[in-house]
Amino acid sequence: MTTVTIHQPEYLPWLGFFDRIYKADIFVILDNVQYQKGGFINRNKIKTSQGWQWFTIPVEEREGRKKISEIVISNQSSWGRTHWKTLFYNYNKAPYFKEYADFFEKLYKQDWSSLANLDIYLIEKIMHMLGIRKEIKKSSSIKTQGKADDLLVNIFKEIGADTYFSGPGGKEYMEMEKFKEENINVTFQDFVHPTYPQLFEEKGFIPYLSVVDILFNCGPESLNIILGNKNY
User: Fold this and answer.
1) Which of 42, 73, 114, 162 has the greatest count of CB atoms below 10 A from its CB?
2) Domain boundaries defined on the chain
3) pTM to 2 decimals?
4) 64 Cβ partners below 8 Å, 6+ apart?
5) pLDDT tens figures, 68-95
C-alpha cells in the first residue's frame, strides 16, 4: 500500500501540514493549479506580544489567472529583511531560536523570484529540521491533466499509488465515486492541535500558527508534539 498526500505549497505552513506529510509515503506538491489570493501560499501567522499577526510575502499583481508555479515575488520592497527582523524581534528569546537563526537569516538575504520555489525550498528544509524523510514530487512534473478530483485521480494513476490521505476538508467537496471507481482508498486526517510552551504567555496559547513557532519554542521535540506523542 502506497499512501499519498497532496497539497498546494504554503509559506512556512502550520503544524497539521507536516502531520499529513509524516503519515504519508509520498507528498505531492500541487503547484500547477490556480493561485488564489487570501490563502496561505504567500503568508502565514506568527505570535507577537500583541497576539497573532500575518507574515506576508508580496507578489506581483498580474491580470489573468495564474498557476502557483507562475507567481512572481515582488522585490520592490525589502520584504526579506523585514521578515527576518520580524522573526528576530518576536522570537529571539525563544529557547531554540539560535538553533535555526542562521538558516533564516541567510534565507532572507537571498534573492527569490518564484514564490513556489521559495515555498517548496522551505517545506523541504523544515521537514529536515523536524526529522521527516519522505519522497516529494511536484504535480507540474507529473504527466497529468484535469481539474479538481479528476486531477487528483490522474496523479494517483500516474504514480501507481492506492491510498489518498486527504485533509479533513476533503469530506465537503470530494466526489468519492471517482476514487472508488479507480480503486483508490481515501482516508481523512483527524488532527488534534497540540499545546506547547509559547512566548508571550499573557496572550494565552494561540493555535494554527506557522511551524516556526513550535520550532523556535520546542526545537527537537517539535515532531513528537505535532504527532501527539508528547503533551504539555
Assistant:
1) 42
2) 3-226
3) 0.94
4) none
5) 999 999 988 899 999 999 999 999 999 9
